Amino acid sequence: MSMKPEETLGNAFMFAELRDSDLKRLAKLMSPAKFAAGSVVIQEGDPADSLFVVNSGKLEANHRDSAGNAQELATYGPGDFFGEMALFEGSPRSATVRAIEDSDCLTMTRGDFMAELKKHPQIAVGMLPALVRRLRNADTRISQ
Questions:
Q1: How many domains are there within the chain?
Q2: Which of 12, 39, 62, 63 has the most CB atoms in a 10 Å sphere around its CB?
Q3: What is the spatial distance between Cα 25 and Cα 116, in angstroms, rounded to a whole number?
Q4: What does the angle CA 80 – CA 137 – CA 51 come to, to the nearest 5 degrees?
Q5: In the beta sheet, which residues pair with residue 68?
Q6: Cα dihedral value 14, 20, 22, 28, nearest 10
Q7: How far is the C-alpha of 107 from the C-alpha of 94, rounded, in Å?
Q8: What is the CATH number of the domain that holds 111?
Q9: What is the pLDDT of residues 53-100, one digit of tens each?
Q10: What is the domain range of residue 16?
């Protein structure tokens, strides 16, 4: 039995502190996306315009260093998310994400997200603690 989109969102720590009503609002903006094992979900350098939340499967993020070597950044599974920077700013993708296994995700575009934030700014306030934790964790990994 598959989860409702608001349950999938609530399992992702970025959205975990949101009220049920806000999760339902955001869930209405989500579209299902399926990726076969081996397929590229996002390509480093491409325009960024959407967030992905993993419902099932496994994906891997890689980044090319200045010498052109691929460096593994993260592995994503159910409840994980990636592409969140695209929701807040439109810079090019900072990594390539590829499906390691057949994967089902939910995706939300930046335009839909920003329109919802303008109507319901408490959503952004509820997301800030999780985004700061993610940034702090990234800073810790970089400094090690």
A1: 1
A2: 12
A3: 8
A4: 35
A5: none
A6: 100
A7: 18
A8: 2.60.120.10
A9: 999 999 999 988 888 888 888 999 998 989 888 888 878 898 999 999
A10: 5-143
